[in-house]
Amino acid sequence: MLSQFGFILLFIVGAFLMLAGILGMARLLRPDKPNDQKLLSYESGENAEGGSLVSFNIRFYVIALIFVLFEVELVFLFPWSVVFGDKQLIEQTNGLWGWFSMAEMFVFIFILSLGLVYAWAQGHLDWLRPDQKVNPFKSEIPSDLYENINKKYS
Questions:
Q1: What are φ and ψ of residue 83, in 5° steps?
Q2: Which of 13-17, 29-33, 50-54, 56-60 has the highest mean pLDDT?
Q3: Rounded to two decimals, what is the model's pTM?
Q4: Which DSSP string corresponds to 94-149?
Q5: How far is it, in rounded angstroms, from Cα 100 to Cα 84?
Q6: Rg (CA), the chain
Q7: What pLDDT does 19 receive?
Q8: Cβ contacts of residue 73 below 8 Å, gap of 6+?
């Protein structure tokens, strides 16, 4: 007789066997006619320009992480709203469950608000342009020559 863990192991093994069978059948049935157009990076047929290692500003990542954090935290509001709206449960607990769940949600939203205030205070939500770097070679050119060149070519 199998234990409960044995049934789980059988289920996992069966899932992997089914996955291997489906992928193997798909490999046998699909057409395989590669050509130069199909082997390009993009389906539009355009060649990629530049390298794939492009540096992005770190602010993109910070804003994205803050966004994902608050979006994931909002998922916790849905089960709370279902439990909070259960009148039968509130009546069984003489209204204590309603007050408890309301207080719990206020604590949860307060902690989220603290995180938002912290991110705001640290400047993670500010989107300012970085200071322009001064061209070090501009100072070596006499200003009158520099202005004459600019007037000549503008």
A1: -70, -40
A2: 13-17
A3: 0.44
A4: TTHHHHHHHHHHHHHHHHHHHHHHHHHHTTTT--PPPPPPPPTTGGGS-HHHHHHH
A5: 9
A6: 31
A7: 97
A8: 112
